[in-house]
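Q: Hi! First time doing this. I have a protein sequence and I read that you can turn it into a structure. Is that right? Here it is:
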Amino acid sequence: QVQLVESGGGLVQTGDSLRLSCAASVSTFYYYTMGWFRQAPGKEREFVAAISWGSGSTRYKDSVKGRFTISRDNAKNTVYLQMNVLKPEDTANYYCAAAGGLDCSGYECDDGRDYAYWGQGTQVTVSS
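A: Yes, that's right. Below is the predicted 3D structure, encoded as structure tokens:
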């Protein structure tokens, strides 16, 4: 069982930055592909970013490319999402997710059904 705890959300203004963190309670964190997803009120959950186990290759939703950066610190069992130039449309509850051994080679790793473990979410609100 993997427990994921997100932190770092908040209320910011357009153009501001936030860094989300997700701490995982698993000793084999290195072998988990980690993803960030978000869900706005009344909308479907959507993929934001992923970072693979091993190579650390990354994937992003097109609308966040160049603004968001996903990274991981395997020594701390933590994945981060640095969000810059935030826009009101980024407002959502952000969820961290983990997928054991998910291979992102030739695959976007953007399907939530591939992720077995999910955090409780952290709210990000961007005011205009």
